[in-house]
Amino acid sequence: MAAYDLKDDGELIALLVAGDRSAFTEIFNRYNKLLYSHVLNKIRDEDAAEDLVQDIFVVLWEKRSLVQNINLSGYLFTMTRNRILNMLSHSKIVSDYASAIKNYEQPSYPIADELIQEKQLSAIIESEINALPPRMREVFVLSRYKHLSNKEIAARLGLSEHTVADQIKKSLKTLRFRIGVRILISCTTTF
User: Which of 98, 120, 123, 163 has the most CB atoms around its CB within 10 Å?
Assistant: First the structure.
């Protein structure tokens, strides 16, 4: 058995790409505490920091075939930074949404009405996503539901990254417009 703790990052990456679990374990042991302390320093939540670091290592294992010829520490810290930014952005959106809901008081609407409206909105969104052209819908679903990067989508579908980015941009623009129109129409017909 090879002494994995004596191998440099480049050797560990080569073994990781080949599916070597011991190399993955060594990478985890080498970077776990460092990434955890970095994340904890930024978000100040032990459980969330632990979850975020675990997610990073899960993604590293799942995408191990894509990490050839990389600077491992740079890759892990970039992935960590991006996850932290996504988490903070999401937290702000949730917080803003919760504040808006808290400040929005309209006692004439019972909870059942809100649930019906939520289901109707979800149905409208799903309907409009299904109405997208097939390739655009496929790119959108891979991006927004499967959380693949533009590069991964391009590789999977045999497209250029520019085409993928363009398809996502067009689909978002189309969905915003169509959903907005449908909501506007439904609001004018209910009054």
Answer: 163
